[in-house]
């Protein structure tokens, strides 16, 4: 899922070589034959003003340095960017946020809106977030022009083209992603990001990690709890990800959930005279299907020197559907497209509402020989960093790699299943699944080892109407994590609950600030005002 907590959600090279070491700690606590990580755990963060236009004046930025490869810490380092809002009173430490994706840049997300959703937490904590390795300012990965080529190649498969030829093209594009991303691409994935978080914990001066993760951020939190159970403090997982399902299974679930959310949106839209699809919800659904197909046949130009296809439209709609609060903006953006051929509103939605870049530049390749990679200026983050990081992390986390022959045989069945799940999002989701072909096999650590964690109680929030992370994933992940997991049932709509439900917000804050946990299986009712734009 591509999702950031209240708005949303290519290559995993080298994931098979990830080595899980003893919980990364000062050398005295590590086995004698393990690499010495003590220098990374002696860091202190220097905070200062944040780079970039429009950053809140009270948001401070800093960095930590982490090993590129935890198995070989002398083989290079990279910086990970952090940002924080200071506690307003006496601080008990920090609470670390991850907004999901995978591939979402935490600093830009926390900066948007001045961090208003999290200001209550500053009553006791410094509220901290970060751009994970390969994301945002932290050595961002990119596929260059290969991003467009990959979508074209995968689209040919889903349209019935020769699977073997297209799989070959995907392998070629994988090498382009590696050339544009540099050495960090060999060490992407949740296992490494979790180890980075433990370095951050120590640098922040916290004995235990207090954490609030959304969507993919729940996978990251669960992996941390498995790797560092004795360092896990108060942990909240909102919009709970699966720890067991393959990318193919996840994509199918995502397509079904987004189709249901689209149907709900169109039912709402057709009650408004401004809806560009008329007044009949059934006919409106058919119009959207025809619009996606039309743009796939004849994409329209944008102001950035690129073409806007039906798959671009599906991606933009999918992003907006993660929050009912974005429905009015989606209605306006679709109206501009249908009436004037204007794609700008939809393009803004596709990147989470951020400002559009000035050009199509994807940045320059990262230096492959440098022993240390510093932070990247916000203006130099590649345009395709989000989708490139999304695939890099997901592929690094997924151990399934069928052979080219097996993949070619499976394409027809997958195409049928995805089209049945969603005539609008099926192809888009299947394309994401196919993009792992040609990448090294990912780690099996998450499926095999993240279970029965021995941590303090943690709070898992599942939302019944979540289009990205279905409620059953909350139940399944809670069962895997074991007796430490406490489930809060949010009977609302949209992706995650913290920003959309006052009840969820209060219960999460009460737990993080005061340690007050709701009973396992307790619930929050729907928000009548916010569920209906």
UniProtKB/TrEMBL annotation:
Residues 121-295 form the AB hydrolase-1 domain. Belongs to the peptidase S33 family. One of its GO terms (molecular function) is hydrolase activity. The keyword Cytoplasm does not apply. InterPro entries: AB_hydrolase_1 (IPR000073), AB_hydrolase_fold (IPR029058), Pept_S33_TAP-like_C (IPR013595), Serine_prot/Carboxylest_S33 (IPR051601). It comes from the Bacteria. Keywords: Hydrolase, Signal. Pfam families: Abhydrolase_1 (PF00561), Abhydrolase_4 (PF08386). Residues 422-524 form the Peptidase S33 tripeptidyl aminopeptidase-like C-terminal domain. The keyword Signal applies. Residues 138-160 are annotated as: Disordered. Residues 1-31 form the signal peptide. This is Alpha/beta fold hydrolase.
């Amino acid at each position: 899922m591509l999702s950031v907590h209240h708005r949303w959600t290519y290559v995993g090279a080298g994931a098979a070589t990830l080595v899980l070491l003893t919980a990364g700690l000062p050398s005295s606590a590590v086995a004698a034959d393990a690499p010495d990580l003590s220098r990374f755990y002696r860091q202190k963060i220097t905070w200062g003003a944040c780079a970039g236009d429009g950053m809140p004046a009270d948001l401070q930025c800093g960095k930590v340095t982490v090993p590129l490869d935890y198995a070989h810490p002398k083989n290079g380092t990279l910086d990970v960017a952090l940002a924080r809002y200071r506690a307003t009173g006496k601080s008990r430490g920090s609470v670390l946020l991850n907004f999901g994706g995978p591939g979402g840049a935490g600093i830009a997300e926390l900066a948007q809106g001045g961090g208003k959703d999290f200001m209550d937490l500053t009553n006791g904590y410094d509220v901290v977030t970060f751009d994970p390795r390969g994301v945002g300012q932290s050595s961002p990965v990119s596929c260059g022009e290969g991003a467009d080529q990959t979508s074209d190649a995968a689209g040919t498969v889903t349209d019935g083209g020769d699977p073997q030829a297209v799989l070959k093209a995907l392998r070629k594009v994988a090498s382009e992603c590696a050339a544009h991303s540099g050495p960090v691409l060999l060490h992407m994935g949740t296992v490494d990001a979790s180890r980075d978080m433990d370095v951050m914990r120590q640098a922040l001066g916290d004995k235990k990690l207090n954490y609030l993760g959304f969507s993919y951020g729940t996978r990251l939190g669960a992996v941390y709890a498995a790797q560092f159970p004795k360092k896990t403090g108060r942990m909240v997982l909102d919009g709970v990800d699966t720890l067991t399902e393959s990318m193919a299974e996840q994509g199918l679930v995502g397509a079904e959930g987004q189709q249901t959310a689209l149907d709900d949106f169109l039912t709402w839209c057709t009650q408004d005279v401004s809806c560009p699809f008329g007044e009949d919800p059934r006919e409106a659904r058919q119009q959207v299907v025809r619009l996606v197909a039309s743009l796939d046949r004849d994409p329209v130009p944008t102001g950035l020197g690129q073409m806007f296809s039906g798959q671009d439209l599906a991606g933009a709609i999918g992003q907006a559907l993660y929050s009912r609060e974005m429905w009015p903006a989606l209605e306006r953006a679709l109206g501009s497209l249908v009436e004037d051929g204007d794609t700008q509103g939809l393009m803004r939605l596709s990147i989470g509402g951020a400002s559009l870049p000035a050009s199509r530049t994807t940045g320059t390749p990262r230096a492959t020989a440098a022993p240390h990679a510093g932070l990247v200026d916000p203006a130099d983050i590649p345009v395709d960093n989000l989708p490139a990081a999304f695939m890099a992390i997901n592929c690094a986390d997924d151990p399934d790699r069928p052979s080219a022959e097996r993949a070619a045989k499976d394409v027809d069945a997958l195409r049928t299943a995805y089209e049945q799940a969603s005539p609008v999002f099926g192809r888009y989701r299947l394309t994401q699944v196919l993009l792992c072909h040609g990448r090294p096999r990912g780690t099996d650590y998450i499926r095999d080892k993240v279970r029965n964690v021995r941590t303090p109680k943690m709070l898992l929030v599942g939302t019944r109407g979540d289009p990205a992370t279905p409620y059953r994933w909350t139940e399944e992940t809670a069962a895997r994590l074991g007796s430490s997991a406490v489930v809060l049932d949010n009977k609302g709509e949209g992706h995650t609950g913290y920003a959309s439900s006052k009840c969820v917000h209060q219960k999460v804050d009460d737990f993080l600030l005061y340690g007050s946990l709701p009973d396992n299986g307790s619930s929050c009712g729907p928000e009548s005002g916010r569920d209906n734009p």
